[in-house]
Amino acid sequence: MESLGAAADVLSIVSPTLRGVQHLRDDIGRIRGAPDAIRSLQDDLTTVTQALESFQALPDPQLQSLGSHVVSQSKFTLELCGQSCKKFRAALGRWTRNSSDGGLSWRDQAVLGLFKQGQMKSMSEQLHNCRSNLITVVTIASLSLQQKDVSSEIIATVSAKENEVTDAIALLERQMTDMNAKLELYAVRRRQHESEADRTEAVEQALLEQRALNGSHELLRYLLSGIQSAASSAQSAQAGAKVRFGDHNRGSQVGVNHGGLNNTFHTRD
Known about the structure:
Blueprint: H1 2-12, H2 14-29, H3 36-56, H4 60-64, H5 68-95, H6 106-115, H7 117-141, H8 152-188, H9 196-236
Helix pairs in contact: 1-5, 2-3, 2-5, 3-7, 5-7, 5-9, 7-9, 8-9
């Protein structure tokens, strides 16, 4: 009962996170003449909204079947997504403070088009990783269905997910290396026309992204561990054996997902 309560607690965070994402998307939508970089954030926010809605639809037992570590890291992902949207929304208000009636002043156009490209890219990457994490959890949770027999289809599905998560972890590790380099650069260099307040804001966003990357890495490592355990069980099981996924090899059995499993991860250039 306590474990199901933890899953319910995580799912209860989805609604406020969803509202934060939608508020930011609406704010961007009201800006006329916004640069392409910030317009693309609207698309990112839309895909995160869809991922949040899918995550919200997960039954508590399915989420909990992935184990307490996954539940905890999913909560961390949701909380950071909400924080990032809140901070970026506040920053966007400052960046467009010279504009009115939805139109951008030339000064704010320059700020968004020239000086805030890095922060917009950082926000886009945070949204992308949030979406990928949520979709991965939803997809793998959908495999946690009661199955009487272990079939070759189950083994193929679990193996495919193992490969996807392994690739995603490798991508995250490259992003973490890049983020460390970015933070080191912030420590020694201030960009031209950048005030101390601007620099502090950029560093805070980078640190938030770093926390999100570390959290994503932990979440995917736990998922990979569970997938590998399930794959090993599936390959050695005889007909009628149970394949389990969860803490200490407890939880629902791994089954077959009849939904799409493609394009869970997308590498950004």
